[in-house]
């Protein structure tokens, strides 16, 4: 009989990604970890159910940073699911997790913590938040899942942590031309374009080029702006890099309300 280590199935399901709310289910074997809780508890459970994920299978919630579109539902959801909530020390303080949840736990940059079937490592991102992080998940069978969203630049820590991914979720927030010529006020455009804002399609493609490899099976474009981006533009930027590298990696664009599941 084959060992359990060789029969694990890992997957990523984006419950929703964008300025209205963010949450991603990362699954392996019998474990499900929820990255961010940017929807109400009721909406999150509805989205899980729509994707065929049993909310009772969730082992923990991990937060990337304290902005409302990533933590809006955390108090009620953590209580309803009765699970620990992991966050960087700065996010714990900024989100006031000690007051909101019963079991807050630390994610220290660069240190692995075992959560369910995964070894999880948090790495620094660059965003206008207290202590934002991306996440690397490695299963016992060697599957590596990386999530890097809400970052104005692809940090050295991100490059190191996301090397060797099997599935990669990377922010591809805006098309620069659409943003600069679009309706947003100038101060907001400057924020988005800054190194503490969000990755453009071009920046996401450049980041992808640094970590793409033969074993990368899927790339998920995250946090697409509904005003300043279009899925075909994001997909074209990412597939262009993969084509130049002669890789056949699948590219999926996550949306606010139509969750793609990637296995």
Describe this structure in words.
The chain is of the alpha/beta class. Helices cover 29% and strands 26% of the residues. It is built from ten helices and 14 strands. The longest helix has 14 residues, at 231-244.
Question: What would the keywords be for this entry?
Answer:
seven-stranded mixed β-sheet; Metallo-beta-lactamase, Chain A; alpha/beta; 263 residues; single chain
Number of domains: 1
Please name the CATH architecture. Answer: 4-Layer Sandwich
How many distinct helices? Answer: 10
The end-to-end distance, rounded to whole angstroms, is 24 Å
Q: Largest beta sheet: what is the strand line-up?
A: 6-5-4-3-2-1-14
Shape: globular
Q: Given this structure, which CATH class is correct? A: Alpha Beta
Instruction: Describe the sheet with the most strands.
Output: 7 strands, mixed
Task: List strands and helices in order, with pairings.
Layout: E1 10-16, E2 23-28, E3 31-35, H1 41-50, E4 58-62, H2 68-71, H3 74-81, E5 85-87, H4 89-94, H5 97-100, E6 104-106, E7 112-115, E8 118-124, E9 133-139, E10 144-148, H6 156-161, E11 167-171, H7 176-180, H8 186-193, H9 201-211, E12 218-222, H10 231-244, E13 250-253, E14 261-262
Parallel strand pairs: 3-4, 4-5, 5-6, 10-11, 11-12, 12-13
Antiparallel strand pairs: 1-2, 1-14, 2-3, 7-8, 8-9, 9-10
């Amino acid at each position: 009989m084959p060992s359990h280590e060789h029969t694990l199935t890992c997957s990523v399901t984006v419950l929703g990604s964008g300025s209205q709310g963010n949450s991603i289910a990362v699954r392996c074997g019998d474990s499900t970890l929820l990255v961010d809780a940017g929807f109400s508890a009721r909406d999150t459970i509805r989205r899980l159910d729509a994707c065929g994920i049993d909310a009772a299978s969730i082992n923990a919630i991990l937060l990337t940073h304290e902005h409302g579109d990533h933590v809006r539902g955390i108090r009620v959801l953590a209580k309803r699911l009765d699970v620990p909530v992991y966050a960087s020390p700065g996010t714990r303080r900024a989100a006031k997790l000690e007051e909101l949840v019963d079991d807050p736990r630390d994610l220290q940059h660069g240190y692995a913590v075992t959560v369910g079937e995964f070894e999880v490592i948090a790495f620094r991102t660059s965003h206008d938040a207290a202590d934002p992080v991306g996440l690397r998940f490695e299963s016992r069978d060697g599957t590596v899942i990386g999530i890097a969203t809400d970052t104005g630049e692809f940090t050295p820590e991100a490059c190191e942590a996301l090397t060797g991914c099997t599935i990669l979720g990377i922010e591809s927030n805006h098309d620069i031309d659409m943003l600069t010529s679009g309706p947003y006020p100038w101060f907001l455009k400057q924020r988005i374009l800054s190194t503490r804002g969000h990755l453009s399609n071009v920046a996401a493609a450049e980041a992808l080029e640094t970590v793409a490899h033969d074993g990368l099976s899927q790339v998920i474009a995250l946090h697409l702006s509904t005003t300043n981006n279009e899925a075909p533009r994001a997909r074209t930027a990412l597939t262009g890099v993969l084509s130049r590298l002669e890789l056949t990696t699948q590219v999926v664009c996550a949306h606010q309300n139509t969750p793609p599941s990637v296995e």
